[in-house]
Amino acid sequence: MKLNVIKDEGKELVVEFEINDFTFPELLASKLLENDDVEFAGVSRDHPETGKPQLTIKTAKKKPADALSKALEDLEESTDTLKGAVGKGAKGK
To answer: Do the strands 12-17 and 38-44 form a parallel or antiparallel pair, or are they unpaired?
Structure first.
């Protein structure tokens, strides 16, 4: 999945996803909000019909890119755990 950096200034990062679906960006914003240093994480788009999802991250102290990396790692870990649970359930049948 390709991301375009729209704004990267101090404690604010805005990235645009090269997709039209909001599912993953919203999931990522939700995961970001679990981080105590993240003051704001939200998804928007410039135009309702043609705009691509944009994720805005604002942090208190750390770099927003670091918070984004951590959220992505956490999501990957969660999906790996889920895959393991599903795999074990399928073997038991």
So the answer is: unpaired
Taking only the tens place, the pLDDT of each residue in 1-23 is 899 999 999 999 999 999 888 99
Residue 62 belongs to what domain range? Answer: 3-91
Q: Which two tokens stand for residue 63?
A: 């770099």
Q: Are 6 and 54 in contact (CB under 8 A)?
A: yes
**86, 46 Cβ separation under 8 angstroms:** no
Q: Distance (Å, rounded) from C-alpha 17 to C-alpha 53?
A: 6
How much is the pTM?
0.84
DSSP states of 33-80: TTSTTEEEEEEE-SSTTTPPPEEEEEESSS-HHHHHHHHHHHHHHHHH
Domain count, the chain: 1
CATH of the domain at 23: 3.30.1360.10
